[in-house]
Amino acid sequence: MASSSVTLCSWMIHHNHHLSPSKTKPLRSRSLKPIFLNPKRTVSIVSSSIITTKEENLKSSSSFDFMSYIINKAESVNKALDLAVPLREPLKIHEAMRYSLLAGGKRVRPVLCIAACELVGGEESTAMPAACAVEMIHTMSLIHDDLPCMDNDDLRRGKPTNHKVYGEDVAVLAGDALLSFAFEHLASATSENAVVSPVRIVRAVGELAKAIGTDGLVAGQVVDISSEGLGLNDVGLEHLEFIHLHKTAALLEASAVLGGIVGGGSDDEIERLRKFARCIGLLFQVVDDILDVTKSSVELGKTAGKDLVADKLTYPKIMGLEKSREFAEKLNSEACDQLLGFDSDKVAPLLALANYIANRQN
């Protein structure tokens, strides 16, 4: 039987979409591979003797109180972030850092990191430095994303953006400070926990660095910027997937992988977490693109329709709204399939997180 694995582009062709693949040479990454739907999988026994089937996973996620879980975890993350970045001299830069870092938000990335750590047998306290580090870097990316030289946005999480409050110069420096401190905090705070070996800490630092450099977030961002104004005849689905596997999915992937590393996961467990997070990372962006054209600024807590105004490539623009929704459903299904075989209780938060990302309204 021929393999049923398909890329996003061939998935669209299979579904008789009117668009053809990109006329440009597909972009390739040294670290992130395209999303493959319905891959052949071998479900293996992992750290627990309790092995789940797809039906059991669905039952587990449907009965799990995810909102209580994410609220409790987010509160823990917020407390840890508050302690990690206290208000001190120089006051202005620390005020700017805290303004964006403690502005709320869903805390999806740190919660993902903690849930992944707990899945492989680790504790929340073990994962917290890594969880805070990924949120610091995510906040940096938002501060820089909102700058006039980038997306030029005035609203973030329902509040004026950092540069609107502190000026462009301080906003740039606040982002820089959060980026550098993320690595300091990951290394120093994790090393205080005797459970995590130095080898795993170094591995985690390397994983996070790759996720935000020219193999990750920066690559996606620069290709996104250079793609503004390009027509549908100039680029295609592989081009768009490259952008979002790097710009959005890479940091979500790193969040799950860091949790698996510091939690003591095996290489097999970590790679399955990587594939899961890559799927939900792309899912996050597909849903984000859908919300940008279907929700108001008040509902989103940020400026709605800005991608349309900037003439950016989005999934609804290339695939259409309904096909984008179908693809989101497919990504959610494939993400959850990566978790087959894990302990049914420990896997519930990640399954529910995937569903939360798929069904979020802001």
Would you give an account of this structure?
By secondary structure, this protein is an all-alpha fold. The protein has one domain: Farnesyl Diphosphate Synthase (Orthogonal Bundle). 65% of the residues lie in helices and 1% in strands. It has a two-stranded antiparallel ribbon. A hairpin with a 2-residue loop joins strand 1 and strand 2. 47% of the residues are buried.
Total number of β-strand segments?
Answer: 2
Question: Distance N terminus to C terminus?
Answer: 42 Å
Largest β-sheet summary: 2 strands, antiparallel
Helical stretch tally: 17
- The number of distinct structural domains comes to 1
Compute the CA-based radius of gyration: 20 Å
Give the strand order of the largest sheet, numbering strands 1, 2, ... along the chain. Answer: 1-2
Series of H and E elements: HHHHHHEEHHHHHHHHHHH
Give the helix proportion (percent range).
55-70%
Fraction in beta strands: under 5%
What is the C-level CATH assignment? Answer: Mainly Alpha
CATH topology: Farnesyl Diphosphate Synthase
CATH architecture, please? Orthogonal Bundle
